[in-house]
Design brief:
The chain has 15 helices and nine strands. The chain is of the alpha/beta class. Bound molecules: (2S)-2-hydroxybutanedioic acid.
């Protein structure tokens, strides 16, 4: 009798349980989510992120923060491995490494994208952004969206932008104050058609060179000078091998955060959401901090070296802007009238 009761109880419990599961579980929705979680548990997802700058820079710190956020948000199931200082790939190599799938994410300077998608040349135009507020508005708005979507046809998904700041000029021989002071000098540049033309207009030679080769070339005198943000000039110690710096704020340096599109499409939806959210947070964080980082490092440069620093006054700056303005017309066909108009609109708004 006891055995019979036991069997009956067992069958009734089993029946009730299966009814409960049948009515209370939405298999179509939840099963998907729980599968993704299972995948994550079985196999950790590792995303290699390569970049060329030092860690104590706006990009270096944003990349580190991004990795930490993804780790937290995914409960340690998605690991972003950050390779700074070009330790994995140089500027020349990183785009190909992304296409080949050797690395899943990179954040190159926007100047390095003009060769695959000419619209990006708009951001290299001299004095494109008069202030940091103009940069943020431009990248968060139509300019940023147009540029990121132009990469879709190259199997690249653009996730957003981090900013380093505005570029300054360094030089070993003499102060560069008027545009005539550029004549006969040679400058290291990023590989960019606009930057080459900029120095052509100023009567200088320009030498396209990888970021991590620049210090050696400045030190050996192979090039007389270069243009970069304070944070790169400081973290790569250019100020130790240059005697003059002009605070000109004449050019923009920022980064497109990129992921291989096939790889992106292969990721579970919840991992894509984690990446999107982490990028959004780092973009806001970067916008809050890049200005103060550059300011702090300018103070350190002044403290740690005898480099002569000249800040362009309004009159001097006006002359530079006028001298370099023909580049806007020259690059309008490549960058597109719409983007140039957007940039000019921001210039009027923030000047
Ligand atoms: C440079 O090559 O000067 C910069 O693009 C380096 C960087 O990524 O900030």
């Amino acid at each position: 009798m006891k055995t019979f009761l036991g069997i009956a109880l067992f069958l009734i419990t089993g029946l009730l349980l299966s009814f409960y599961i049948g009515f209370h579980f939405d298999f179509s929705e939840r099963k998907l989510v729980s599968d993704d979680d299972q995948e994550g548990i079985k196999e950790q997802i590792v995303i290699k992120f390569s970049h060329v700058v030092a860690e104590n820079t706006p990009k270096g710190l944003a990349a580190r923060k991004f990795a930490d956020l993804v780790d937290q948000k995914s409960n340690h199931k998605v690991k972003v491995e950050v390779f700074p200082n070009g330790s994995l790939y140089s500027d020349k190599e990183e785009l190909h490494a992304l296409w080949e799938g050797d690395v899943q994410m990179i954040a190159p300077a926007t100047s390095k994208l003009g060769s695959i998608s000419p619209k990006w040349q708009a951001l290299d135009l001299p004095f494109a952004f008069p202030t940091e507020a103009a940069i943020n508005e431009g990248l968060d708005g139509t300019i940023g969206r147009t540029l990121l979507s132009s990469l879709n046809s190259h199997n690249i998904k653009g996730l957003g932008f981090w900013v380093n700041g505005l570029k300054q000029i360094t030089n070993k021989d003499h102060a560069i104050i008027s545009t005539d002071d550029f004549k006969g000098r040679n400058f290291r540049i990023m590989s960019s058609s606009v930057l080459k033309k900029q120095f052509d207009l100023l009567g200088s030679q320009s030498v396209p060179m990888d970021f991590n080769e620049t210090y050696r070339s400045l030190e050996s005198g192979e090039v007389d000078g270069e243009e970069n943000t304070i944070s790169n000039i400081y973290s790569k110690k250019y100020y130790k091998v240059q005697n003059h710096m002009t605070i000109s704020n004449h050019g923009f340096l920022g980064y497109a955060i990129l992921i291989n599109n096939d790889y992106w499409n292969s990721l579970p939806r919840n991992v894509q959401t984690i990446i999107h959210d982490a990028i959004k947070e780092t973009v806001t964080w970067n916008q809050k901090h890049y200005i103060s980082m550059n300011k702090k490092q300018l103070k350190s440069i002044k403290k740690e070296s005898d480099i002569q620093i000249h800040t362009l006054n309004a009159e001097e700056k006006k002359k530079w802007i006028k001298k370099l303005h023909p580049l806007y017309q020259l690059y309008e066909p490549a960058a597109g009238k719409k983007l140039i108009n957007e940039i000019e609109h921001l210039q009027h708004k923030y000047q």
